[in-house]
TrEMBL record:
The keyword Oxidoreductase applies. The lineage of its organism: Bacteria, Pseudomonadati, Pseudomonadota, Betaproteobacteria, Burkholderiales. This is FAD-binding oxidoreductase. Keywords: Oxidoreductase. Residues 7-351 form the FAD dependent oxidoreductase domain. It comes from the Bacteria. One of its GO terms (molecular function) is oxidoreductase activity.
Length: 374
């Protein structure tokens, strides 16, 4: 049974919470978004923000070929929806479909893995292709591959400014009637005859649907209402450089450093797009990482480090998103993913369809929490 104009409360104002607010509002729901801090102040703020459709995942050794293909296709659907949202919303969304260059030294294990990923992408319909070092420099004149001459190019990937994207989608939701309450930490939830009573730092609210999209806080929040899934904590650091003139356009993923230049001229670098391991004694310090980046992007030589963000993330144990619901509380759900930038657009659409229309969305089945107890 569906409810006309349901009262929806979303816990968490990161990128997932913001697009959920927009999608629920667009369906006529009365939406409130709570955040214990300010919007986009958690994992979203520290995101590398590569919009990817990669096939090699954290769980590459355990995920079946069919499971990897399904996850790849979910990314592709999400990219399509991001493009649709760029046309649909009034704001100019901070997305650049610039393409991505991935580099490795021929003969290395990394090159072998990159070639295997290329073959899977091609089998599954990706436009990724291999390019020579000279062709890579034509595509990205700022790039000097050096020894990293095993190079693939994916033209339909891109990047976004995650904090600005969160603000834009939340503002669009507010324009549709949603409300946003910052510094308003969730405290508890009670089942009532008419739905749920949510208590937060700023009082009580009634809701028909409650969705937890709290990132790092999701395990604690979800367990309070009986939603459980195996989640692990990860900490990664991302180096942010002071604004530079336009230097390079594409996402560049080298053997030892990944780099993106954002709209404001700031360059974000890390050993890996999920962040450099924090506390690893073998990891370079920020200034050393700039030198590593300058080896393939010489324009970064001498660039000033503006800040380093150390971001805590909650990662599902098998690397895939976790969508949790309870038979006892059908109006409650939680979504946790380490790929919110890439997958936020499609996950939100599917979750809103399931919660508003009262049906089971098949595309969510591989990502339900029940897979851990099946």
């Amino acid at each position: 049974m569906t409810i006309s104009s349901p009262r929806v409360l979303i816990v968490g104002a990161g990128i997932i919470g913001a697009i959920l607010a927009y999608d629920f509002s667009r369906r006529g729901a009365r939406v409130t978004v709570l955040d214990r801090n300010e919007r986009a102040s958690g994992a979203t703020a520290g995101s590398f923000a590569w919009i990817t459709n990669q096939t090699k995942f954290r769980n590459a050794d355990t995920l079946s070929e069919a499971g990897a293909r399904d996850y790849f296709n979910l990314h592709r659907l999400s990219h399509l929806r991001w493009r649709h949202l760029q046309d649909e919303v009034k704001a100019k969304l901070p997305i650049r479909w610039c393409g991505c260059l991935q580099l490795a030294i021929p003969g290395t294990q990394q090159a072998t893995e990159l070639d295997a990923e290329l073959q899977r992408r091609l089998r599954w319909g990706s436009p990724t292709f291999k390019v020579s070092a000279a062709e890579a420099r034509e595509l990205e004149p700022a790039l000097h591959p050096g020894d990293e001459t095993f190079i693939t190019y994916t033209p339909d990937e891109g990047m976004m400014a995650p904090v600005q994207m969160t603000a834009a989608m939340l503002d669009e939701a507010i324009a549709l009637g949603a409300s946003y309450s910052a510094n308003d930490a969730f405290a508890s939830l009670q089942r009532t005859a008419g739905g749920y009573t949510v208590t937060s730092a700023k009082g009580k609210r009634e809701a028909d649907i409650v969705v937890f999209a709290g990132g790092i806080a999701n395990p604690e929040l979800a367990e309070q209402v009986g939603l459980k899934a195996p989640l692990v904590h990860s900490v990664g650091s991302v180096v942010h450089l002071a604004p530079l003139p336009p230097l390079f356009d594409k996402v560049v993923l080298g053997s030892h450093v990944h780099a993106i230049q954002r709209f404001d001229g700031r360059v974000v670098i890390a050993q890996h797009f999920s962040g450099s391991p924090v506390g690893d004694p073998s990891a370079p310090n920020p200034e050393q990482l700039v030198e590593v980046a300058a080896a393939i992007l010489p324009g970064l030589k001498g660039a000033k480090v503006e800040k380093v963000t150390e971001t805590r993330r909650v990662i599902p144990a098998d690397g895939l998103p976790v969508f949790s619901r309870s038979d006892d509380n059908p109006g409650i759900a939680a979504i946790t993913t380490n790929a919110g930038v890439s997958l936020g657009a499609i996950l939100s659409q599917l979750i809103v369809t399931e919660m508003i229309d009262g049906l089971r969305v098949k595309l969510l089945d591989p990502y339900r929490a029940e897979r851990f107890t099946a």
